[in-house]
Every structure is written in C-alpha cells, then in structure tokens.
Write a structure and sequence with these properties.
The chain has six helices and three strands; from the N terminus they run ααβαββααα. A hairpin with a 2-residue loop joins strand 2 (75-80) and strand 3. 43% of the residues lie in helices and 10% in strands. It has 143 residues and is mainly alpha-helical. The protein folds into two domains: 18-109, Arc Repressor Mutant, subunit A, CATH 1.10.10; 116-143, no CATH class.
Length: 143
C-alpha cells in the first residue's frame, strides 16, 4: 500500500454532513456504498447552479455502491426520458429531484465534469518554494 503524504494547506475541502459522520458511518457496512456516498458528496458539492446531480457513469469505479446508497436513502434516484440521475438526499437534492421530475430542468444538456483542482497562491508557493510558515501565509494573503 502506498503511503499517504498528508493533506496540504493549499487544497480545498468538501463539506460533509454531520449526520454522515455521526450516524451513517456506523450503519454503512458495505465499502462500495460508503465510497459511492462520499464520491457523490464530493462531486455534487463542487458543482455550481441550483440543480445538482450525477449520472451513474459519473460514479466511475464506485457505481456498484449506488444502489445501496439509494436503498438507504442517502442518494435519491430520478429517471425520465433523458436518463437516470442521482441527487443527495438533502434540501437542495430534493429540490433538484423535483425540478427534474416536473420538467422545469432538463439535465440532458448538462455535462458534469469532475471538479478541477485550481491552483492558488498557497499551493504554488508550496510546489515551487517549500513549506508555508504562518508569517509567509499572512504575507501572501495580503499580496
């Protein structure tokens, strides 16, 4: 197993619902279901716009856990003539499902590309110069 070098100070973070860590983590026994759930949170939270969803193909190697996540209720499944779509079971996700079901939103023309890693000044500094100190981070923030 390759060793993980740790998180950097320059990377973005994804908001994870407390109920996932508090309740669901102990209940989810299938690793594929957990991976699919975490992948959905990551992808959907990095999308923009009022309607956020994934297609089954967006799950890549994590697709085998999607059915269990839907059965548990962490993901919502909606199907129409444009295809099969998945949303988080959250207030925004339920609004997305309703918009797709009612026809107010047509997801067939939307491409959900994976989030791109955006370089920022902190990441560029660490990649090209070295570790950030608090003093240097403050100076970069002010620049």
């Amino acid at each position: 197993m390759p060793t993980f070098n740790g998180f950097t100070s320059s990377e973005t973070f994804t908001a994870v619902p407390d109920s996932l860590l508090r309740d669901l983590l102990a209940e989810i026994e299938d690793a594929d279901e957990l991976r699919a759930t975490l992948h959905a949170i990551w992808r959907i939270e990095h999308q923009e716009g009022p309607v956020r969803f994934l297609r089954r193909a967006d799950f890549g190697g994590f697709a085998s856990g999607v059915g269990k996540a839907v059965a548990r209720g962490t993901l919502l499944r909606v199907q129409n003539e444009a295809g099969e779509f998945f949303c988080l079971n959250s207030p925004r996700g339920r609004v997305s499902v309703e918009a797709i079901q009612s026809g107010r939103f047509d997801p067939s023309n939307v491409q959900n590309a994976p989030p791109v890693e955006r370089s920022n000044i902190f990441k560029l500094y660490e990649e090209n110069i070295g570790a950030l100190t608090p003093l240097i981070a403050d100076m970069l923030r002010e620049a």
